[in-house]
Design goal:
Blueprint (H helix, E strand, L loop, with lengths): L4 H16 L6 H9 L6 E8 L5 E9 L5 E7 L4 E6 L4 E9 L4 E10 L5 E6 L2 E6 L2 E7 L20 E4 L21 E4 L3 E3 L14 E12 L4 E12 L5 E13 L6 E11 L5 E3 L6 E5 L11 E4 L12 E2 L1 E8 L2 E9 L8 E5 L5 E4 L7 E3 L5 E11 L4 H12 L3 E5 L4
Antiparallel strand pairs: 1-6, 1-27, 2-5, 3-4, 3-6, 4-5, 7-8, 8-9, 9-10, 11-18, 12-17, 13-14, 14-15, 15-16, 16-26, 17-25, 18-24, 19-21, 20-23, 21-22, 22-26, 23-24
Helix pairs in contact: 1-2
């Protein structure tokens, strides 16, 4: 294969890097697959190092100088994988079955991956997220419609996720349920608060003292690896004249990965909207909430399991890194696990498990009061994994490990 003098130099450099990294036996094999011919379109080569345990699924991210867009990455076996670069030049790809202590070498070609596979589409006042046409979740933009005529307008809410689907298309969330009209799929609010001498309740909207609403949708994106959005929410104190007490940036990404799980990442950045501190008083619930399918209602309708092995019977007010909720929907077993990032306040966080309703909440305020100011925003990170069939605790633990300690990436720079 013809090779320019520049490409020869470049290949020699790559070979030496591999030798220096301790791969004398594998160098020839890797060199053959990756660098024979040193295709000039290969402008980035990087390696991903496996952790100490098998990772069934790994979401890999790293900084690069690539322009934003969708690319194709190829490993040393010739297998292709989509790679997506955001506006901050941060690259993401999804790897399956990463062996312990393994090293995978990837090259990125100057080839677009084609039409985005993971999409965010404006559909009936919702942003619908899909993976190759398979629905993942819907984000509510509008407050114009109620599912039932008997719901008072005070309960109108937007800025939340519902429905949320499993890979096989089963809905696992509920919205405006009869027993708790203020519950909405996956949503966020605070309950017992102190703000400027008043006590707005942003969670229990029926009290009329507080509400959370979508202020504006900043941006929406689709791509070959993930789709997502960035939105701005306001927590409004309604106890007297309406005052915005808290600003919230809601950042979410939905990933295209294996056919066995849907994954949603949610990051909330909260800061006081005025010079006044918002105090989150000690309470048994508040923060990120999940409301399960109405067929899971009742004491025996849903199964709960925490990372520490606790259940609905003994799990409430314990701490957990992740919590599974599952049950039957139309005769088929489905479930979701919510993973709390170790950087979260009070991690591993206390949990609220309802004794009869399919409701779960990571509730840091159980551990005591804390403050949110305008100078020191607080960030919350959670990952939601949905699946069909019985849950696998060992898989859930592996997914949490990948979330808590992502795989490392080392760039072998040729050309950027």
């Amino acid at each position: 294969m013809h090779m320019t003098f520049f490409n020869k130099i470049r290949c020699t450099y790559c070979w030496q890097l591999l030798e220096d990294r301790g791969f004398p036996i594998l160098s020839l094999l890797i060199f053959f697959h990756l660098f024979v011919g040193c295709d000039s379109s290969a402008f980035l080569i990087f390696e991903v190092t496996g952790g100490e345990e098998l990772r069934p699924l790994a979401i890999v991210t790293f900084d690069t100088k690539l322009p934003s867009g969708d690319y194709v990455a190829q490993d040393h076996t010739g297998k292709d994988a989509p790679l997506q670069v955001d506006l901050d030049s941060r690259a993401t790809l999804v790897m399956e079955r990463v062996l312990p202590n393994s090293v995978t070498i990837w090259k990125v070609n100057d080839v677009a991956s084609g039409k985005p596979r993971v999409t965010a589409d404006d559909f009936n006042n919702q942003i619908l997220f899909s993976n190759s046409g398979r629905r993942i979740a819907a984000f509510h933009v509008s407050t114009s419609e109620m599912p039932r005529e008997d719901i008072p307008d005070i309960y109108l809410r937007n800025g939340y996720l519902h429905p949320v689907w499993t890979p096989n298309g089963k809905i696992i969330t509920d919205d405006y349920p009869l027993s708790h009209t203020h519950h909405h799929g996956i949503w966020a609010a605070w309950t017992k608060t102190l703000f400027q001498g008043r006590n707005p309740d942003f969670w229990n909207m029926g009290s009329g003292t507080g509400r959370v609403e979508l202020s504006h949708l900043n941006s929406v994106w689709s791509g070959s690896v993930y789709a997502g959005l960035r939105a701005h929410h306001q927590y409004i104190d309604m106890t007297q004249e309406e005052v915005v007490g808290l600003n919230e940036v809601w950042i979410m990404n939905t990933y295209g990965n294996s056919p066995n799980q849907n994954i949603i990442d949610l990051e909330l950045i909260q800061s006081a909207a005025t010079d006044s501190t918002l105090v989150l008083l000690q309470h048994r619930y508040g923060g990120i909430g999940f409301r399960g399918h109405h067929q899971w209602a009742g004491k025996n309708g849903a199964e709960f399991l925490t990372s520490e092995g606790n259940t609905r019977q003994n799990g409430h007010a314990t701490r957990a890194r992740w919590v599974h909720i599952g049950g039957e929907v139309d005769g088929e077993v489905v479930g979701i696990t919510i993973l709390s990032h170790p950087s979260n306040h009070e991690a591993p966080q206390p949990v609220r498990i309802h004794p009869t309703d399919p409701f779960f909440n990571f509730a840091p305020s159980q551990a005591g009061s804390f403050e949110i100011t305008s100078e020191q925003p607080i960030t919350w990170k959670y990952r939601f994994v949905t699946y069909d069939g019985p849950h696998d605790p060992s898989l859930l633990e592996a997914l949490w490990q990948d979330y808590a300690e992502p795989l490392t990436v080392q760039k072998i720079r040729i050309y950027e």
